[in-house]
Amino acid sequence: MKKSHSHILVVDDDQEIRILVARQLRRHGFVVDVAANGIEMRNILGTARIDLVVLDRIMPGEDGLTLCQELRTTSNIPVIMLTLLGSETDRIVGLEMGADDYIPKPFNPQELIARIRAVLRRANELPINTPDYRDRRLRFSGWTLDGRARRLTAPDGSIVTLTDGEFDLLKAFAERAGVVLNRDQLLDLTSGRQPGLFDRSIDMQIARLRRKLAAYADANEFIKTIRQRGYMFSADVVEADE
């Protein structure tokens, strides 16, 4: 079997689970570190390049949701959450907190491997070597998107009111103009900013964003639907002069 070499961090207070998961991951070619709590997790993250974290939901002290939120605010490392709480509500809460996937215990180790590979593949499909536009100003067709001020200005000088989720979606599109992005990629690019943004709600956010842009001419045509693939921002985007 081809070696993966991706570096996985398993965070679980249950030693048996840590051993089981680590053994399975190593059999499939992953490099593995384990941690029993948030302190050990941070120590490892400070010394190793981790590609994905497998995180237990229920732990004494700092629980998995708290640690997941911390990871989302400090890094883009994908997170798969393991939990005894397998209800739909618990899954939604985990996703809203920034988890990339959510697997109830007990779980099939082969399913965990497949989920890890899927999340890593999704993360690796995101466009790389993209300039950091987080605090920069972008211009397209007379519009100005100010990352520092989190403000969108229409060609006539009007300020367009956007929710945080709408702004982050537009920023993700503008930073990757001409690139087709599917729902999973858009979720990854906007996760941690707007609670409730997952699955088909991406489509609803895009529909609302299109309507707001369309109020200022034919700007809704900027976001193209690419059948069976996703969405693409079709405008020519340049960095604005300061």
UniProtKB/TrEMBL annotation:
Question: Which intervals hold domain OmpR/PhoB-type?
Answer: 135-235
Decide whether keyword DNA-binding is in the record: yes
Any Pfam family matching the protein: Response_reg
Gene3D superfamilies from the entry?
3.40.50.2300, 6.10.250.690, Winged helix-like DNA-binding domain superfamily/Winged helix DNA-binding domain (1.10.10.10)
InterPro entries registered for this protein in UniProt:
CheY-like_superfamily, OmpR/PhoB-type_DNA-bd, Sig_transdc_resp-reg_C-effctor, Sig_transdc_resp-reg_receiver, WalR-like, WH-like_DNA-bd_sf
Alphabetic keyword roster:
Activator, Cytoplasm, DNA-binding, Phosphoprotein, Transcription, Transcription regulation, Two-component regulatory system
Q: Where is the Response regulatory domain?
A: 7-120
Where is this chain's protein located in or outside the cell? Cytoplasm
Could you cite one Gene Ontology molecular function of this protein?
transcription cis-regulatory region binding
Q: Does the keyword Signal apply?
A: no
Which residue intervals are the DNA-binding region?
A: 135-235
Which residues are reported to carry the modification 4-aspartylphosphate?
A: 56
- BP-aspect Gene Ontology terms: regulation of DNA-templated transcription
Record's GO cellular component terms: cytosol; protein-DNA complex
SMART domains per UniProt: REC, Trans_reg_C
Family annotation (PANTHER family)? DNA-BINDING DUAL TRANSCRIPTIONAL REGULATOR OMPR, REGULATOR OF RPOS
Name of protein = Regulatory protein VirG
Gene source species: Candidatus Filomicrobium marinum
